[in-house]
Amino acid sequence: MAKVRPIILFMWKSPCSSRLKALALLLAGLMVLALKPLPHNLKPEGSGQKDKTLSPYFVVLSDDPEKDALPLKSTRADVKIAGKVAEVTVTQVYKNQGQKTLEAIYVFPGSTRAAVHALRLTVGERVIDAQVMERQKARQTYEDAKKAGQTTSLLEQQRPNVFQMNVANILPGDEIKVELKYLELLQAEDRVYEFVYPTVVGPRYSKLPAAGAPDTEKWVENPYLHEGQAPPYAFDLAVEVQGGLPLAKLTSPSHDIKVKYTNAKVAQVTLQDDTGGGNRDFVLRYALAGDKIDAGLLLYPGKDENFFLMVLEPPERVTPKTAVPREYIFIVDVSGSMNGYPLDTAKALMKDIITGLRPQDAMNVLLFAGGADVLSESQSLPATEDNKQRALDFISARHGGGGTNILPALKQALALPRTEGTSRILVVATDGYVHVEPEAFDLIRQNLGEANLFPFGIGTSVNRFLIEGMARAGQGEPFVVLKPEEAAGQAARFQLYVETPVLTDLKTTFQGFEAYDVEPPALPDLFALRPLTLLGKYRGKPQGTVVVTGKTAAGEFRREIKVEDSLASPDNVALKYLWARERIHRLSDYQSLASGKDEARIKEITDLGLKYNLMTAYTSFVAVDKVKRADGQVVTVKQPLPLPQGVSDLAVGKGAPMASSLPMPYEAARAFTGRRHSQGAQLSYDPAQTQGKEEDQASKERSRGLEVKVVRVQGKLEASVLQQTLEAKLSRLEKCFQDAHAEGRKLPRQVTLRLVLSAGGKVTAARVIQEKQVPSSLSNCLVKALKQMIFPKPAEGKAEVEILLTLTGAGS
Predict the structure, then answer these.
(1) Burial, 91: exposed, middle or buried (Cβ in 10 Å; 0-12, 13-18, 19+)?
(2) Mean pLDDT of 769-790
């Protein structure tokens, strides 16, 4: 097997005595703050600043579980896929291991297509089913129950793919279980079905002032762990797939899974024991035997309303003999959250797409973070070989850093001069870690003109609400690239899509079948080989025919589906929830912001949520235990989230590096803020008032900290890629030196380590070479830190990778 043997040099410069004294004084001050409660009316320094914005922030967990006492014990998803519908039960278990009554706040993701229709709270042996209420009424019901000492839970939608769970009055020793249920309609693309279960909400960049921010935006201000830190709660998942036909090609590109077949049509999917996996989207893909899709018609005869679902397989793609010249505008996110692995993936994607452009095409590139840079301000460039290389050099020279100002970037890109005689295509590559999704959709709809926009979500846990919504607004198709090795395949799919749509000018008519309230009201042009899907209601007997017509590159398209009474079943009750969710989705997504809030549309969404027992932006679920169990005095804890896999610390703290070296206990950090609310202390670390100081301190620490250099590599793995990976995760190794220095250990000038990487980029072995010269505490810490890192995969299959690391420093 080919092996990679790089030597990596790290340089450690010992802090001077004055800096150590300052650090000791700072830590001492923090400990005093941690031990001495702040007066109720005392606000932290800087808390009154008018320019403070909503921002995610870091917490640093200690090794003492009694200090941290985080309430979320575990989260689990149980999924049953039957035909076209996935039924998901999410179970969250909260346990109070501390000494005070708690309120837990947990922000978590969901599918953009989820129809959340039930919530259940279990307290001891008591089971309480939640009620759906208008959002403000549900919040007030929750607050009243919290104040009265009753255990209560509140589920709110902050975005169609971001939910917030509040659970109040968790007594010491309590274990509270909360279950939510949702339904999702699955669709095949290129005859492959994909189920996605998101596990973590990525940090959102926001310029919204914290003062006066609406409740729907305050979730952005959430605590995060540092990169590489595992979630402080257990995560598990199990999926049962019933395909109706024999299953084929059942795989997961995101997790290691175990598959057990009950029979050819049914499979049980679970996670491998050692995968963890709570820091990235779980993706499951499968096909049906013979590359069939589950097409046809389903009917649900309800008590008051009848519903139908039509799924129609599209025709084979036909490539036209002549292709229209295209003008491509590439809009690439180079912000802090894209630094390292996500930006490397985006660069690989851009290389594959730009290399494939034709001489008759034109192109331009806009890179954005806090600001934006354009390859050619005056006009797009012809796609010559020289200009392609110029564009690739322009992209490859950038590293991730700064905020994610996507709206100004989109405005600038949409305003770029057009190339005559071409059809314009906009390509956006981003992880989507912003909170301005509605504004982005509205901007695209109002300014796109005769063009199509294709967004690419980059990373393991992208903001799919933004990616999918931009595609709808831009009349394109969404793509998600999980890792660099998927870039070539997604680029090829994109090129195939833009050559010509599969179907255009689609129309649906009903002959002898009284259908109404059909979603979507009009079918868009179809780029992907994706089934046509219609949801709607019907009156009278199920009879007649559904007719779909359109145009392909080869000529006219026509399909008919016969409606029969035998297709109706009470087992198809999911159709009413799926129809209501689809209508809510359209009403919410396409609400124009130009004229402010559309009160009539808000009322329509609210009424749909209340009628069909669904969570929306304006309806929430609340459950209240009738038994009074506490005195109403609670300590609020925001559950810190792990950073998504592959996302660096630069994603938090306005896109700039945050100081991660101070081993501040979680309790001390919480006491340091001194924030209060009406019912008790708010246990969350808010660094807004010290963020500028921390960023300056981080810069100083970098200047006197470790330096890394890859000296030698044996095998097919680029030294520069290893270099970038290690530089992005340098804070973990820095902390080992700082801890050893604080213990009074004598630090050697050089520490050499050797690692062995598996084909998947995981560290399978690590050891210090000169063991006698290196303190065991430093050696153990470095080995542990390196084993927690995930490196890029070697180019050749399952070849092992051997790495030699050398850390060089001034000694102590």
Answers:
(1) middle
(2) 81
